[in-house]
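Render this sequence as a predicted structure.
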Amino acid sequence: MTAASRIVVAADSPLAAARIEALLRTDPRVDVVISAPGQLTALATERAASVVILAMSAPSVARALERFVGVPRMPPVIVLTSTPHAAWTTRARRRGVRAVLHRDATAEELAAAIAATRAGLFTLHPDAVLGASTPVGTPSTDAPVSLTAREVEVLEMLAEGMSNRAIALALKISGHTVKFHVASLLGKLRVRTRTEAVTAGIRLGLISL
């Protein structure tokens, strides 16, 4: 994290907020601001936050995210919750959520998620994957899945059935670059085909049809 990195934290209990603050205070370069849910939007924008952390139940996260509707230049959001699968939804992603961790995330896990979020990556706890079983064509590793914003864009176009050439034209990039992104997606999602990548993306909540 860079110097003067300001992180706004909102939690559904003082104990949860204190725990996250303690985890973040291990880095002296971080300025932590604790917010009540009602003050969240103002603090996140007026204090020029680099990241917002929501430590709440999934329903509370959804309500907090609704406060961001129509707010320009909202910082990316990291969610800590006991039910990651319920918090990672298409709506949440559209509201700025870029990472979902378990509520008991360690300082190292939280720091890694913050760094990934600031780099434009999506980070998911394995429990964010919907369903108890993992069928063929979906990630089976316990490691979080991190995709760049461009990789998610390419994945969405694959879901629409677009060819590499059509994706290249739409994104104004070369066909070679498209092949690179597709190969990266297959590797990160641990799948073999474009169809399996789309299936995995849907299960992870990265895209929707």
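Summary. The chain has two domains: 5-128, 129-209. The longest strand covers residues 5-11.
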